[in-house]
Design goal:
Layout lengths: L1 E5 L3 H12 L3 E5 L3 H10 L16 E3 L2 H7 L3 E4 L6 H12 L4 E4 L12 H8 L4 E6 L4 H4 L5 E7 L2 H11 L4 E6 L2 H23 L3 H23 L3 H4 L2 H12 L4 H10 L4 H8 L4 H15 L5 H11 L4 H9 L16 H5 L4
Parallel strand pairs: 1-2, 1-4, 2-3, 4-5, 5-6, 7-8
Antiparallel strand pairs: 6-7
Helix pairs in contact: 3-4, 4-5, 8-9, 8-11, 8-12, 8-14, 9-11, 12-13, 14-15, 15-16
Length: 347
């Protein structure tokens, strides 16, 4: 297949390397001519992948028309979420209509509350759009470590096409029709990972991490279902799976930023030290706005917003979460409860 990856960050390059090794003809669009020339010559990204050389078969370009034409069979959007709309708009004329497009970026646009697929459908009408999401750290994919991912699209044909293109003995690809659920899982988990990192920075241990992961997926699922997603999606790779890896791994930029904040640094200082786009910071405000729009309280996400943007300490945020009003862990149907729970009697 002839495939173009739009974006030359770590995840875009891991994907390009994987696809090239599967025998596909891969072109990567770089954001500047200088970066395209550097990658063509050096074929490495030492800050992200020390000691890794990109396959010789990858072609690097800066010209949008050349990039779009080279992706005759599939375009893969892999730019950081704050730049998805502007990049898509810059490619609009070159892409035209009738293309297969999948996006591997996770995030919610703060101004519009659109997911990444929503943005592409808005800017690039007349094309078939899908998403790829799951527990997929670029640092492991590029080394060929076994990984699983979900290809979602409203079009079954596109979801299965992307599955066929990407699947390998090292990358297992599942399909899903639930684009919204897959995207919300991938976006909102970054906010929870910030909270998990803050707890690590405070030295709070495994019990606290487990609680944040468990209650975090509860919050994500509650909002996603309210918005129209399927609960089963959030139990899978793009929900619980992605949340676990992002909260637990030092590959996670969101967790690393959270650790620094837990240690007392500001959001701006933490982002500068991580040195890459921390998607959860951009998704946090959008997640809070969605909770308000859909009248769905999200206590962890609300506290993360207070720490990031209102000057609250991470320690105070944890204290407030621990001391919230007492409640049952889950919602039960009355008929599933013992009589004393239904009637309020003492026996």
């Amino acid at each position: 297949m002839k495939i173009t990856v739009i974006g030359c960050g770590a995840w875009g390059m891991a994907i390009a390397s994987h696809l090239t090794k599967q025998g596909h003809s891969v072109t990567v669009w770089a954001h500047s001519e200088a970066e395209a020339e550097r990658l063509t010559k050096e074929r490495e990204m030492p800050n992200a992948f020390p000691g890794v050389r990109f396959p010789d078969g990858i072609t690097f370009v800066n010209d949008r028309r050349a990039a779009a034409d080279a992706g005759e069979d599939l375009l893969v959007f892999a730019v950081a979420s704050p730049f998805t709309r502007s990049t898509a708009e810059s490619f609009k004329e070159a892409i035209g209509t009738g293309k297969r497009i999948t996006i591997v970026t996770k995030g919610i646009e703060e101004e519009t509350l659109m997911t990444q697929a929503d943005i592409l459908e808005d800017v690039l009408p007349g094309n078939t759009i899908g998403v790829l999401s799951g527990p997929t750290h670029a640092e492991e994919v590029i080394l060929g470590m076994p990984t699983t991912i979900v290809s979602a699209s409203k079009s079954r044909q596109l979801a299965e096409f992307v599955q066929d293109v990407f699947i390998s003995p090292k990358l297992r690809v599942y399909t899903s029709p639930d684009v919204l659920g897959v995207e919300l899982g991938g976006s909102l988990k970054n906010v929870i990972a910030l909270a998990a990192g803050m707890a690590d920075g405070l030295g709070y241990g495994d019990n606290c991490k487990a609680a944040l992961i468990t209650r975090g997926i509860h919050e994500i699922t509650k909002l996603a279902v309210r918005m129209g997603a399927l609960p089963v999606t959030l139990q899978g790779l793009s929900g619980m799976g992605d949340l676990i890896v992002t909260c637990a791994s030092m590959h996670s930029r969101n967790r690393r930023a959270g650790i620094l904040i837990g240690q007392g640094k500001s959001m701006e200082e933490a982002m500068a030290e991580v040195g890459q786009v921390v998607e959860g910071v951009y998704s946090a405000k959008a997640a809070k706005a969605l909770s308000q729009k859909y009248d769905t309280p999200l206590p962890i996400i609300e506290e993360v917003n207070r720490v990031l943007f209102e000057g609250e300490s991470a320690e105070e945020a944890v204290r407030k979460l621990m001391m919230r009003d007492r409640k049952m862990e889950s919602s039960f149907r009355p008929e599933d409860l013992p009589e004393c729970w239904r009637t309020g009697s003492s026996r």
